[in-house]
């Protein structure tokens, strides 16, 4: 298959999925209050959240987030290799190890960096890694 045929096939699949309403949807809710969302007038259970523990509306986390914003502002995206926000040591060295019951945790800022750090430590030269089509591209 030449490049233009391949691009055309991708475009057709994309258009078909979009026309059928599989993606590029918009939630209609004025605010989120649980795991449900409204799309095209239908109330749906959302599996799109990254809140695996279901804590996105926990008042303790919301209050803690508001307090952190008041103390440090919204732009504390320092690279921890150069400058650490005062919140990080408390979180990394005290709270997370206690939560998980371990002496130390390794907290990485992105999925990509986690893959680049952890995969070489877990795999040997002759190991095979089998991934499906939805694997993160950094793997």
TrEMBL record:
Lineage, broadest ranks: Bacteria, Pseudomonadati, Myxococcota, Polyangia, Nannocystales
Protein name: Aminotransferase class I and II
Gene3D superfamilies: Type I PLP-dependent aspartate aminotransferase-like (Major domain)
Source domain of life: Bacteria
Organism the protein comes from: Nannocystis exedens
């Amino acid at each position: 298959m030449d490049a233009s045929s391949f691009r055309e096939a991708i475009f057709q699949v994309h258009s078909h999925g979009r026309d059928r309403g599989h993606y590029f949807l918009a939630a209609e809710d004025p605010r989120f209050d649980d795991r449900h969302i409204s799309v095209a007038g239908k109330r749906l259970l959302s599996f799109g959240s990254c809140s695996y523990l279901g804590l996105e509306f926990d008042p303790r986390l919301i209050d803690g987030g508001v307090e952190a914003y008041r103390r440090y502002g919204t732009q504390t995206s320092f690279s921890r290799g150069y400058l650490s926000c005062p919140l990080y040591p408390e979180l990394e060295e005290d709270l997370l190890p206690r939560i998980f019951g371990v002496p130390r945790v390794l907290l990485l800022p992105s999925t990509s960096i986690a893959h680049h750090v952890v995969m070489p430590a877990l795999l040997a030269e002759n190991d095979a890694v089998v991934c499906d089509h939805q694997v993160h591209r950094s793997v």
